[in-house]
Specification:
single chain, alpha/beta, three-stranded antiparallel sheet, 9 helices, binds adenosine monophosphate, globular, 20% strand
């Protein structure tokens, strides 16, 4: 396994590579969700590159950059089970050298949901992903459906800017009790971890109500909200039921829908989503 820390060395390595190159960008503290992306890249591409970079540009000063879990030793160990050609671990000064002043902005999909709650988030994500795409030049890049809005924003950026990387989406990996695995789960206390299962339960409730024929989005959102409020440590940020392709809020669920939630469990903010199909 080859670990590279500089853009220069990465480019030197990349020059020699032919065939398909699958890229998995991560912020580290790797878990089974990340590893499912790596497994998919390995399956579909000749070469796999994983980046580990906690991107400061996507956090506002009042968010959790300082407490975001990091464990490089663990990350290298879990990645050693895979056929990975290169792990790219750049430093902040490589990615954002002194005087850095260019940021990428998707202006529609990124204004709602996560974008409304986290004003710098998508600008930071789009910027770092665009930079990585220029450095890594992947033929394919792998993103998790757990961050459904992020997938849409990246797909839009790639389409708008004529970037030649194919974007592949991988289903959300969950713990046995339904909680989506996430690096931030490590910051939950035992009792907060217990409460956090309500997030998936609320999504599951949405699916159940929808399958029983309820089409009124507000009715479903209210039921989800009451359920989330019923357990300790939780504070709802948003619940949304939207059109999956453009994130427009729905009043009536007449075709497929994306149900998205963001909930604080203690100080930890978690997000999750589920798709409702018209055939459910
Ligand atoms: P992060 O390190 O949180 O920025 O995530 C890196 C990539 O892993 C993103 O594409 C995420 O959507 C994806 N990811 C995070 N959690 C999960 C999960 N539970 N299942 C599948 N993919 C995930």
């Amino acid at each position: 396994m080859n670990t590279i820390n500089t853009i220069h060395n990465f480019r030197t390595w990349r020059k020699e590579i032919t065939g398909s190159l699958g890229f998995v960008p991560t912020m580290g503290s790797l878990h089974d969700g990340h590893l499912s992306l790596v497994a998919e890249a390995n399956k579909l591409c000749t070469h796999t590159v994983v980046s580990i970079y906690l991107n400061p540009a996507q956090f506002t000063p009042d968010e959790d950059l300082a407490t975001y879990p990091q464990n490089l030793k663990h990350d290298l160990k879990v990645l050693s089970q895979f056929q990975i050609n290169t792990i790219f671990i750049p430093t902040d000064s490589e990615m954002y050298p002194r005087g850095y002043s260019t940021y990428m902005q998707e202006t529609q999909l990124s204004t709602v949901l996560e974008g409304r709650s986290r004003p710098l988030f998508f600008q930071g994500v789009a910027t770092v992903v665009a930079k990585f795409f220029n450095i890594v030049r992947p033929t394919h890049a792998f993103f998790g459906e757990k961050d459904a809005q992020q997938c849409l924003v990246i797909e839009k950026m790639v389409s708008d800017l004529n970037i030649r990387t194919g974007i592949l989406k991988v289903p959300t990996v969950r713990d046995a009790d339904g909680l989506a695995v996430s690096s931030r789960n490590l910051n939950l206390s035992k009792s907060e971890r217990d409460s956090a299962t309500i997030i998936y339960k609320s999504l599951f409730l949405a699916r159940k109500l929808h399958s029983e024929g309820i089409k009124n989005a507000n009715f479903i959102k209210k039921a989800m909200s009451e359920l989330i409020r019923s357990v300790p440590f939780t504070k709802q940020d948003y619940i949304s039921i939207s059109e999956p392709s453009n994130l427009k809020e729905l009043d009536l669920i007449e075709c497929d829908a994306l149900v998205s939630v963001a909930v604080f469990v203690g100080k930890t903010r978690l997000i999750d989503n589920i798709y409702l199909n018209s055939t459910d």
